[in-house]
Design a protein that fits this description.
- The protein has 366 residues and is mainly alpha-helical.
- The protein is 69% helix and 0% strand.
- α2 runs antiparallel to α5 and α5 packs parallel to α7.
- It folds into 2 domains: 168 residues, Four Helix Bundle (Hemerythrin (Met), subunit A); 190 residues, Hypothetical protein af1432.
- It has 17 helices and no strands.
Amino acid sequence: MDTTALLQPRISDAESLQDFADSLNDHAPLIERDIARLKHSPGDAALIADLFRAMHTVKGDAALCKIDMGVMIAHPIETLLGRLRAGEIGFSGTVAEAVLLALDRLELATEALSAGRAVSHLKLVELVGGLEELSGAPADKLDEQAVLVIEAVTGFRPPSAAKTINRLASAQVRNAEDDAADLRFFRSLALRYEGLSPQYSGRSDRQLRLALETNAVAGKPVDPLQLEAAVYMHDIGMLFIPEAKWLKTDKLSEEEKRLLQDHASIGAGLLERMAGWQAAAAMVLQHHEMVSGGGYPRGLKDNQINPGAKLLAIIDTFEAVTLKYAQHGEQRSLVRAIAEINACDNQFAPEWIAHFNAVIRRMVES
């Protein structure tokens, strides 16, 4: 790390500094607003995407205006938000405090430079060092690292620190036994859903195999445990909707369509209320979104959609189409399902299609 850029920043062009200050003044209130909203809706993909874009813009403007200090502060925050957008980590109030502190220090440092004042008292070296550690921290260590960042820069622990540390110490966040127990529970719910129709028999195992193998071929961009939970839970919301509605063969009314669409929110809501499954909740909530923006519940587009949800959408549709044409025989229904998946380029993420095709080809050949 180049500490000179943080202890004694050099500004070669006062006009560029003012341009960056103006840009920061525009974006900082929006970032603060979105963080406040995200505290209440931690799985909101649209909010996360907006936050990521805003921080990316701040970093880009800092680079364009040659404000190295701005780049060094914004970059690890952008990395952190990128992991959040990808579903690798969850969002917490403690992490939010660390990000807001960094934004505040960036504003103070920019004001100081504009006025020709020193910035050494702002502890930017400690801030950037802590943010870099935070951006790469494991999901179960994020809150702990965020507390360390705040303490290193301000000299005191945030009000939430005691609660955070106590929770970590008493529960050790999550361990393999917790995850295994939860997954067994999720699977039991999935099997209960399967039991509603003979046609559904074995669907959870089929979908899980396809999802995990496709994710593996792609290099495991999605956490396999979170993906497994999402596979089990993505249709569990149907158990809370009258059977007569989702087994209805006649045309559905608009009200009935909305009722059925609620299943994604119900399943996601159950996961959101269980510690450690926020990424899976996002996948479940968004697995009926389309890259074109024509899906539900929020009409998200392409990069706004969780990567795991994009994969789950393909797996879920493949199972549904295979079931639809089952009366024509296994081989024909399989071919028809593959064709439909590959024809819907406005519905499914192209980055997943090639990996999915590779897995299907291997399964057919074996």
